[in-house]
Amino acid sequence: MTVSRFERVGTYLVLGVFTIFALYPMLSILFTALRSEVSGQGGLHWENFGKAWTEARFGSYLFSSLIVSVSVVAITVVLSILAAYAFGTMHFRGRDALFYLMLLGLTVPSEAVVVPLYYDLRDLGLTDTYASLILPQVAQSIAFGAFWMRTYFRSTSRGVVEAARLDGAGHWQTLWRVLVPMGRPALVTLIVLVFMWTWNEFLLARVMITSEALRTAPLGLQFFSGRSDTSVPLLAAASVLVALPVVVLYLFLQRHFIRGMVDGAVKG
Amino acid sequence: MAVGEPRRVGYLYALPALLVYVAFLLFPLLHSGWLSLFAWDGLSLGTWAGLSNYASLFSEEGAAAAFGHVGVLILFFSVLPVCIGLVLATALHRVRIRGLPFFRTVLFLPQVIAMVVVAVAWQRIFAPDGALNFVLGTEGKAWLGDSATALLSVGIVGTWVQTGLAMVLFLGGIGKVSADLFDAARLDGAGPAGEFRAVILPALRGEIGVALTLTVIAALRTFDLVYMMTPLGGPGGSTTVPAYEIYQRAFHTGQVGSAAAIGVVITVLAFLVTYVITRVAGRERA
After folding, report:
1. What is the ipTM of this complex?
2. Is position B26 within any domain?
3. Could you tell me the CA-to-CA distances from A50 to A44, A103, A213, A223, A226 in Å, in that order?
């Protein structure tokens, strides 16, 4: 296809405009984070990040987020693999009904269940604990996990499973020694998506958590931004710290993010 | 079709996931439906209210306003990004773009950043001393503090977040269209508009459906953005949304039943949106 130079230039011009539109808010917050707290003072002020980490306690908030996110990812991945293995490779009565029951969870907005969850967990004495963040988010992610891994299990050739069987492997060994190692790409996608959803979650933490020690990073940022004595550069530095883990993960594994969010998007 | 072999042990494999799912998602959802039938302040004993919580959602101004605002947000979260995405994909597909992975990475980036961070970044832009006033020459205007512009401002942030998603989806979809189709359209004398109608639109039906579903549901669920950018529902309550009403009613104004009813309504809407768009776009079940 021959394309005129005019068209070529126009294309890059349009792409450039949208790239700037996408980048500007992020770059501006990054530059703000490096500004001095005293207006008029120049130079790069990396110490803002240190101050956000210690004085504004974002070290503690990020740690809470890490505990919650890693727990949700670990539990979701294991339970999704087990359930998807059953739904994708075995045959038992009610299998499809159970699977579709789980698929419903893909569409239920978490905003709709946060109210009953609060009262249910309060009755169990679980509000204001990590468990009150972990368990509901596992439940929300597991629908996607079971769906995503089932697609993988159904796409693997039956020959692989039969070969493992001939070697004397039972269903447990076949799963963990053969299918899971082969399914690394699908698993990585699942892991990064669940990590991102959990890391960025805000409403559940807003509702469940009252102790400062348990605040997750997004919740900490909301409190910090609401304080009247918060300086703009420190708020920007804290924002960068909150966003950074997912952004770094995204820069290395962007194919997984895009594939998971786009392909896994509409599940029927 | 009978995939897999008969195995009772399947129940055991599925059990742990089902237990957590039922206990922490399905049961709360049903519980929400139950709570929505009571007038309850969260502390004392609730009284049976039947469907009156739902009935008052239609008559009462606060709820109607919240759902109306979502309607506006859908324009910014869904319609605008899909239109921009389509125009750009059409304009861009003719040129082999060098550095496409770079552009894709950058354009998709807003999708992965926590909404609370997005809110902080855009609050600065909309501030009286922010970049928007500088660009427009409107000195000292508080875009988020004015009931005429607050919702619009939140909407623009939605467009910023979702446009990249639409573009990445459509550029991917257009890349799969065979060049022959474009050649055939051109031989038939189709201009850019004809090409768009005859080739691109039909080819991207599935992608448009995905983009609409994702973005409409994102608009329907908006909470973090309005809660952070416009505290207390914005100036004159101009940026209240259903999720904000749920939070406010359940935990601040002692209307748990009404909050649960709104939760049920947005769940039903989410299912409807998914169902209708999937039907219209005619996407095969994965």
Report:
1. 0.93
2. no
3. 13, 44, 19, 18, 20
